[in-house]
Hints:
Chain A has one domain: Immunoglobulin-like, CATH 2.60.40.790. Chain A is elongated and about 85 Å long. Chain A has 123 residues and is mostly beta strands. Chain A is built from 1 helix and 9 strands, in the order H-E-E-E-E-E-E-E-E-E. A 4-stranded mixed sheet of chain A has the order 1-7-5-4, with no helix packed on it. Chain A has a 4-stranded antiparallel sheet with strand order 2-3-9-8, with no helix packed on it. The termini of chain A are far apart. Chain B has a domain at 37-127: Immunoglobulin-like (Sandwich), CATH 2.60.40.790. Chain B is elongated and about 80 Å long. A 4-stranded antiparallel sheet of chain B has the order 1-2-8-7, with no helix packed on it. Chain B contains 1 helix and 8 strands, in the order αββββββββ. Chain B has 137 residues and is mainly beta. The longest helix of chain B has 18 residues, at 6-23. The chains are: A mainly beta (123), B mainly beta (137). The A-B interface holds A 13-15, 20-26, 30-31, 33, 35-40, 59, 61, 64, 66-77, 99-102 and B 23-26, 28, 30-31, 34, 37-44, 48, 50, 52-57, 78-89, 112, 114-116.
Amino acid sequence: xxxxxxxxxxxxxxxxxxxxxxxxxxxxxxxxxxxxxxxxxxxxxxxxxxxxxxxxxxxxxxxxxxxxxxxxxxxxxxxxxxxxxxxxxxxxxxxxxxxxxxxxxxxxxxxxxxxxxxxxxxx
Amino acid sequence: xxxxxxxxxxxxxxxxxxxxxxxxxxxxxxxxxxxxxxxxxxxxxxxxxxxxxxxxxxxxxxxxxxxxxxxxxxxxxxxxxxxxxxxxxxxxxxxxxxxxxxxxxxxxxxxxxxxxxxxxxxxxxxxxxxxxxxxxx
Lengths: 123, 137
């Protein structure tokens, strides 16, 4: 109990950012790209609760001994962002991939929601 | 007469504290001013430059050292499709870091991990602090 409180206290001290996100719709589904530099796979949590997709992560840089910081523009931080996904998305097949500090998520469209050509019959 | 200099002597420490506060990551104000953001640190023999460049392979980053400055250049490509939201910066970027010390250009190393570029630049021998031994006669 106490440790979790301490942890949340430490957590609260980190600046929190909403990561830059691209959402692209393609024919097969939605592709979400999120910039999360410095985030390791272990520090990334993706939660899907009904219609809410919640992403939270933490970037931590190793402390270096005997080094003086001349100029700093980024540092340890937390990323958090949530999306509401529509019924069109097939929940079972959501894929996520973290590469080079970018989280890439693929939300496939359900078969019935994919665009379909309607054939016109000449009669 | 006693003059209390304590506040005067404390000033450097106060200044240090002010800058420490200003440089704490939570107080970073210029986070989005220049792209890509860089961190610069140094120790006695090396300069460390870190830069957040997520989604770019190290092969696509062009690092050049010329005339006392380090230039980080690259291109962030973006995918095709219909965009619902585009917040991630895309396109060509360049950042110049001025190095005010003599460096050893042969020993520069660069690597990328989790979207963070790390460049280690060794200082030239003449820029390293040196102990001068004093001979007692």
